[in-house]
Fold this sequence. Notes:
heterodimer, A: mainly beta, Methylamine Dehydrogenase, Chain H, 6-stranded antiparallel beta sheet, 5-stranded antiparallel beta sheet, 9 helices, 64 strands, globular, disordered N terminus, B: mainly alpha, elongated
Amino acid sequence: MAMVIRVFLLLLFIFFYAKHSFALYEDQVGLMDWHQQYIGKVKHAVFHTQKAGRKRVVVSTEENVIASLDLRRGAIFWRHILGGNDIVDEIDIALGKYVISLSSEGSLLRAWNLPDGQMVWESFLQGPTPSKSLLFISTNFKVDKDNIILVFGKGCLHAVSSVDGEILWRKELATESLEIQQVFQPLDSDIIYAIGFVGSSQFDTYQIDAKNGELLKHRSAVFPGGFSREFASVSSDMLLALDATRSILVSINFRDGETRFHQTYISDLVEDSFGTATIFPSKLTGKIAIKINSYIVFIGVTGDNKLEVVEKIDYPAAISDALPFSEGRQAFALVQHGENKIHLMVKLDNDWRSNLLDESIEMDHQRGLVQKVFINCYIRTDRSYGFRALIVMEDHSLLLLQQGEIVWSREDGLASVIDMTTSELPVEKDGVSVAKVEHSLFEWLKGHMLKLKGTLMLASPEDIVIIQGMRLKSSEKSKMTRDHNGFRKLLIVLTRAGKLFALHTGDGRVVWSFLLPSLCRSETCEYPTWLSIYQWQVPHHHAMDENPSVLVVGRCGLSSDAPGVLSFVDIYTGKELKSMNIAHSIAQVIPLPFTDSTEQRLHLLVDADKHAYLYPRTPEAINMFQRQFPNVYWFSIEAENDIIRGHALQRNCMPEVEDEYCFNTRFLWSIIFPSESEKIISTATRKLNEVVHTQAKVIADQDAMYKYISKNLLFVATVAPKAAGEIGSATPEESWLVVYLIDTVTGRVMHRVTHLGSHGPVHAVFSENWVVYHYFNLRAHRYEMSVIEIYDQSRADNKDVLKLVLGKHNLSAPISSYSRPEVTVKSQTYFFTHSVKTMAVTSTAKGITSKQLLIGTIGDQVLALDKRFLDPRRSINPTQSEKEEGIIPLTDSLPIIPQSYVTHSLQVEGLRGIVTIPAKLESTTLVFAYGVDLFFTRIAPSRTYDSLTEDFSYALLLITIVALIGAIFVTWVLSVRKELSEKWR
Amino acid sequence: MEKGKGVVGRRWAIDFTDNSTAPSSRDIPDPLGFTRASPDQDDSTLSRQKKDAEANWKSQKAWEVAQAPFKNLLMMGFMMWMAGSTVHLFSIGITFSALWQPISALQGVGKVFEPYKDKKVDTLGPKLLFIALNLAGLALGVWKLNTLGLLPTHASDWVSSLSPAQEVEYSGGGLPIR
């Protein structure tokens, strides 16, 4: 008895001393999470290399990021993400210390401090009409050491002081259909020129006094042929524009306030110019670049408005703007492609033959073509001019070239992830080379000695730093093989540029990358857009020696009825297995729950005409599919018409085409929402790969409730059409939110609930038998979260223990939606403080572990919230048995526990999505959050109950074991002695 | 007469209590003046009385032993009441000891009554009582196990790990991909 008490006390002691916490300790940061910062595809770049100190380049990107990068290493000094609807139009540097950014269609002008990125001032520019926005920083016109910033936006020309952002004057230039195309100020002049087109054929010139904004002159001239709105300026008083047919180059000369047109046929300049011409947007002086067919033609202007061809080069090439560098000389860069190489040439503007720079640089084939070049000049040690070029590649990566080498590169394509999937790593092969072991043996011993010192608290501070470094860079977590716990995986990520990246979950490094369009480009499909990615082949039981592969679905063009493209990519090698240009369009991709003998998943591709095509196109797949054929349905949501339709499949696609892989679809049901009162704003379904452990939920007093678990459930949220806009656009009386749960096989509405006075946006997550959604309550002026749980009432009377013991129950019988199971619904609503960007739910390998909601907050962090807080059975005073069950007393709002931020102190800027991947260890989920940044970690919603934690004291365990063995030995010896002396007695 | 078997290497032994009547079994002649005759042939009535007393004593003892689990039962009941009805180390330990004790006692029923075995003593009654009391103890333990919720007597115990039923239909789709 005394022994029992002693053991009990010891255990108590251990429990009290093992601190349980969801939060991380400071030294655990980076052990299992990684965070990568990106900026996106660069649109503009402005160099700032004044004097010594930190050389930097300021860039603005298509992800609306303004960032300052280190020119030596490419690291980010600072960056600002302006948000999805604050598009950066232009950036520039003023006064040598401010970065000026113009955004939101020319209505927001901001100045950022160049060294540290703090905002200095912000001006809101108003105007009557939306228009093109232009930014021009005048350098020669100064009022009290103040440079004027000229901004054209919203139909108005503004002069803004660069010191404090004050608007000095404002001139409205908006008349009917006038589109100002360019604002500039010639050197040593007080006159600002604004030029633009009215309608399709009129050309207008405005001359404005720079001091007070008075209109000095306004000239307009009509060109009868019409313009195509494409133009390029050649000099301060001359433009070259294309006419409406794109076959005539019109030189527009507006010197002295008079406008003169001069036409030149492109066919006169360039032979075999039967294609349509486009003007390159590069700003050069004295010449322009035109793309015709597969050529780029440089056309120069000679003295008396005569045009002549300067040079003709092959298309794909990129041209930078002209850069003035010394005594009025100007240079521009030209990048051309060779085999596995790019040729960078820097030429003087007025002299084609001489090259300031001619370098060829080895370039990875997977980066595609050069899309943009920005050049900058520096003075070498021998006082000659050197040039460095910043190039933007087709895969949105950013590279700095200097002295024939790539100084640094940034994979900024990863800022625009559009879809992702995961894959297991290869199984570890037996046999490790001896040399490797011997080499690392000493290191291994040293590491373990250090760790031992650490655990025995003998380590000096320096040792602790080394130990921490070792923990962070542990080679164990970045191995290229499968691990026992399933923490090491590959994240296959598809970016907007059409590039696939395989990221290792251990440290986030790029294992391989593959640019899809580079191989797929063909006559029929010049610019495919890639849409989504699916797991095509996941070998596990049989076909183990095959590599897994993914299916990438794309489209030839932007319209939804454009023909599709499929690409199959091997995950281990990163090579394309095959690609297909398919004849039909792709509106939906439905992965089916069947796999063939090589573990290829069957997919159904539905085109815009509602024909379904089965892939892979093999006889085995069609045989397998035919058996399941009558039980496969599909539904389509037409959000613009507010209709949901359900379909079944039918044999024989089109009578004229013999294609046994093509199926006609038969319309079954439709749900038409009344367009005057409801508009679909959000839908959610369960994840296909979600695993549910059990159908019963054990509640207090050992009662059981049966969950209604169906993969064919659809959550739809509709709002009043008036309330479809921003919050505040509708009063509480005229806005409502209606939520439906729909069975997608029969079209039956399982549940419908109306939230009066509520407003979108709605974010929903569907898992097991529950759905949680987040919306705004206009009456309470707060965000709310609601939970709906569905239970199967038709199974509720399975209560006889004897029958259950004998297995005489209907619980494992297959369910059909046509049996119209009776359901009951429980729901509850809570207030929630944050607005939400995205929501997800944890998923584990067997579905036993309790769930957590992962909420992407407006602050770009990921918050983990226990599902227990969103339990409709919560009540204000739970009974004793309910408390034992773990039901939390009801509160009106959901708690936000600061320690439960998954992203701890980091921000995933521009957060767009959260993906959870089950690890092999049941307690653990891998979480991948993507936006402009990438973040990965693993979390254990119910703590790691199935493995020892990282901070488990192995030393204590070891000491205990040693002590116990010692004790056993000593007592054994003692007992032997005692026995002997007993015998002698 | 089994002495000397256990210890190997013992060459000889003299048993002073040897009272066998046949001298031929021995190689050594009897000492002079020693007659090998039964010493208690004279007072056989005395010995019978003694035996009766012993039998009485034995049966009394057997009944006492048979009643012993009753005390244990009370003790266990008290302990269980102290342990409460929530599952923790203490209550589990007590419950399992309450289950184990009767089982081990029942296994050793024969051994417990071995010393009281006699031709004249009837041990069936005490044995039955002993078994009954131990069974009561076992029942108490099982009852305790049930109050702790460790017995699968509810429907929830049988369905809690029942995997979800298969669905006949499969439906996919959603918003058109963009």
